[in-house]
Write a structure and sequence with these properties.
The complex is a heterodimer of chains A (170) and B (311). Chain A contains seven helices and no strands. Chain A has 170 residues and is mainly α. Chain A has two domains: 11-78, Orthogonal Bundle (Rna Polymerase Sigma Factor, Chain: A); 100-167, Arc Repressor Mutant, subunit A (Orthogonal Bundle). In chain A, helix 5 (122-132) packs across helix 7 (149-167). The N and C termini of chain A lie far apart (55 Å). Chain B is α+β, with helices and mostly antiparallel strands and 311 residues long. Chain B has seven helices and 18 strands. In chain B, strands 1, 2, 3, 4, 5, 6, 7, 8, 9, 10, 11, 12 and 13 form a 13-stranded mixed β-sheet that branches. In chain B, strands 15-18-17 form a three-stranded mixed β-sheet, with helices on one face. Chain B has a two-stranded antiparallel ribbon with strand order 14-16. The longest helix of chain B is centred in the first third of the chain and has 19 residues, at 81-99. The chains are: A mainly alpha (170), B alpha+beta (311). The interface between A and B is large, with 52 and 38 residues. Chain B: InterPro entries: FecR, FecR_C, Ferrdict_sens_TM. Chain B: Residues 238-300 form the Protein FecR C-terminal domain. Chain B: Keywords: Membrane, Transmembrane, Transmembrane helix. Chain B: Residues 106-195 form the FecR protein domain.
Amino acid sequence: MDDETKSVCEQINYEQLFNTHSKSLFNFVYYKCGDRQQAEDIVQDAFVRLWNNCSKVIFTKAKSYLYTIARNLFLNEVAHKKVVLQHQSVPFNDRTNESPEFLLEEKEFMVKLKKVIADLPEKQREVFLLSRIDKKKYSEISEITGISVKAVEKRMSLALITLREKLGNI
Amino acid sequence: MEKYIKDDSFLARWIAGELTPQELEKFKKSDDYPVLKKINDASQNLKAPTFNDQALLSKLKELNNSEQAKPKGKVVKLIPNWVYAAAAVVIAFGVFYTMTMKSHFQTGFSEQLAIVLPDNSSVKLNANSHLDYKTLGWKSNRALQLEGEAFFDVEKGKSFKVNTDSGMVEVLGTEFNVISRDSYFEVQCMEGKVRVTSSKIGDNVILLPGDAVRVVNNELEKWDFSLKESNWTLGESTFNNTPIEQVLYAIENQFNITLDKSNIDTNKRFTGAFTHRDLNLALKTVAVPMGLSYSVNKETGVILLNSNNNN
């Protein structure tokens, strides 16, 4: 069946949408609010709404529908809330031939970086993290956030400038 | 930080790998490059928290199913259909009613009524009379149905017609008095011009102020009078050579009594007036000049009239 005629109301199609978009939707909301539980709730709400309105949403538009709903839910609930991002801690360097001093410095830098990212304005942060963590192209970010590619690029640049200035020289 | 780096999209393009080799070369030499490179490298190693999508999916399925299973509340229309039907009936009724609406006025014995017509013309209805007219389209069709006696003061406008059983009065001017009872028809014109058409004789007469006409025994009688307004509206009935039967009939209407006229000659004519305020006085003013006597039957309340000559 081609995408144009697929019905969101069918369980299979709905699940397909969920599997394709839920993770990235979750990340998107998480970058915005920095609260895992809240992000999960919003993702859940967005998909419930999609199901309830399944007859009104075209399959190919479901993605932007989901992101729009998630954005609005976020604005309703958690706008202005102070955000503390807690990234999953992963060893970002597993090489062992580095000196302990270097490793320590790297660790310190990671901590600083996380804090500075968390302190970024929400709009810059979501663009930056969608690009860097989810490896999304600017065009895709523009679709997700509902702003133009130009604006995405501007926010990206601003985010880097801010990070650079706050981290200073190493 | 150098200015070109702060450009709107320079760093964004760098991240996307869209810088030209020359730009990249220049950028690599700047002080900012190592830091930015490190930020970029480090941030790419960040991970979003784990997201248990399967758990959420099963939860969603449950939610969606319960949503479906939930009995939907019965939708009750705010305005039930029958209200529309009822409203249509009411409106149709209303339209029908106003289209055919007739105003009806009636006076009982010893009662007078002043009526203002839609065009501000006024009608004074004397005792025991009926008046009907259509309210709708009054301006274009000023026609009334009269039975009894009434005084008309007509406003300017199109023709004003008073239809009676005995004939039709058409106003060419303004004020006139009409009496139409069983076999009697009388019109007095006070102001302006009135055309009287008798249905019995089939003749028509134009009356000028002070002219009056009556139909008695299928004959048209015309006479002059010199009153500005019909006197009954001022509490007195005036007659000019009128058959006595009509005079007595007027007394009956005015005082709500029954007169026994079997003993007198009802074709005699009476000229004069009687007051509406006092029955005794009225009877006297009529009976004495006509040489009549009267006596009251206390049981039936009927007043018996006798001719004095017979006694």
